[in-house]
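FAQ: What does a ligand-bound record look like?

Like this one, built around cytidine-5'-diphosphate:
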Amino acid sequence: MLSQNAITVLERRYLKKDAEGRPTESPEDLFKRVAQAIAEADKEYDVDADIKATQDIFYDMMYHLKFMPNSPTLMNAGRPLGQLSACFVLPVADSMEDIFDALKNAALIHKSGGGTGFSFSRLRPAGAAVNSTGGVASGPISFMKVFNAATEAVKQGGTRRGANMGILRIDHPDIMEFIQCKKNTAEITNFNISVGITEEFMKAVHEKREYSLIDPHDKRECGKLYAPDVFDLIVKMAWTNGEPGIVFLDRINRDNPVPSLGEVESTNPCGEQPLLPFESCNLGSINLDAMLVCKDGAYEFDYTEFEKTIRNAVHFLDNVITVNNYPLKEIRDMTLSTRKIGLGLMGFADILYKLRIPYNSEEAILLAEKIMKFLRETARDASNELAKERGTFPTYSESVFKSKGMVQRNATVTTIAPTGTISIICGASSGIEPVFGLSYIRNVMDNDELLEIHPYFEEVMKERGLYSKELMSKIAQEGTIAHLEEIPKDIRDIFVTAHDITPEYHIRMQAAFQKYTDNAVSKTVNFPREATQEDVRMVYELAYELGLKGVTIYRDGSRDAQVLNIGKVN
Ligand code: CDP
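The answer part, i.e. the structure of the complex:
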């Protein structure tokens, strides 16, 4: 079942090893270890629970590559570290003690395979007075560099490279410096950065006027900027090398299920999980490809299997919260108070190939909505069932669910993660992304490269008698088959790849999934190299209109080291 690439990935970082670095468990042992550790939680709620039965269900889901929890769960469940979450947000308050507490806590989280998000918006701007020393403050960007250096150092000893998200509000006085802080791509490399955009700012952009900058220290207005110029600069920098991204803070807070706990200021590193300060979340994804059945030579989506898998996955993820070993008491308390989980999916592009639906079609958008609606409704129902057996999340009575009369065990249930590594384990296309290339080189685990040919494409080409080594290597060089006349049109229409899809379709697909996702959706909008800044601006505007929570764009060739490369073969 597992591909060679999957085994390579598991051996490198996930399997238990002896002192000489040789694996002491097989992938099956790993799934058993994880299933056992996570099933244990059932005992907390029912002393007579049939742990073995639950363990078998969890094992079966992972073994058959139907569902995979996020990497830290696979790495650490049933082992001494026991830290199972991928996503954390840490507060950064405006004092030396608080800044360096956050730094230390981030190092502990990175060591365990988790990623950290921070808002630096509460830090006073560069040049502001420091009372205790009579000196001047260094400002958010210089502290981000310190966090970046610490991440770099921890990266060597940890389970995987630490990732960070850095967010600054659009009304922070240092915003212009922040927008340009990754202009030099060799700087702040361990951070993704996003500008925290407000409704007030978007209004000012559309009304072509100034907006106020606020000193976070005394909350007073301390200057003004012309909004269209600031928006232009964000667009220009994103066009240049993909950063910064943007997040719509007011929208994220509109969906905050327990507003009394405070304001959401940041997301996790890849942007799909907005969290309160000190909150963590564990993610898991269903492999849609494993939800297909083949009848009379044609594929169909099996909603019965999907429903069963969703219910078991919600049970699994709720158990993770219970048995998780939290790196800090504050994180434990906060996470247990909302019990947020993030169930998502992977393999969407794969199933479109098999169902013969082009990614860039209305049919694909409708299928996305149907699948995600089903996932959310079933997950909510499963969370409701758990609440009846185990109780609601502790802050339920202050939550938006209480007023709606919806009894829930978990304050959020759905998130669409990038599934960078777990999609390799499952041999599935990542998250909701289109297939990047039908044949390409993927850089994984920091420096290693893996050659991938899409297996279903290979199968179809062989079936039609069109497969040849020469053609495959030509496709690997070109990255797309859209213009290859020697391939029949019906195949070219279905096997579209990331660069055949217009940015508008990328955004519309993201919006289709976001419509039924509690948290956010990880998606990169790919632009061709020749795209203009105006193209990027239009996509940002569309993202705003369609109600997205954030956007990340990437223009082909705009960075030296890309994770995915067209036309690069060994
Ligand atoms: O596939 P996997 O479970 O490894 O992770 P993912 O879905 O690609 O990423 C989910 C989240 O894991 C990210 O948003 C980060 O919070 C975290 N992550 C990280 O901390 N470091 C990485 N190198 C990759 C992911």
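Follow-up question: can I read anything off the structure? Yes, for example: Residues 87-267 form a domain with the Anaerobic Ribonucleotide-triphosphate Reductase Large Chain fold (CATH 3.20.70.20).
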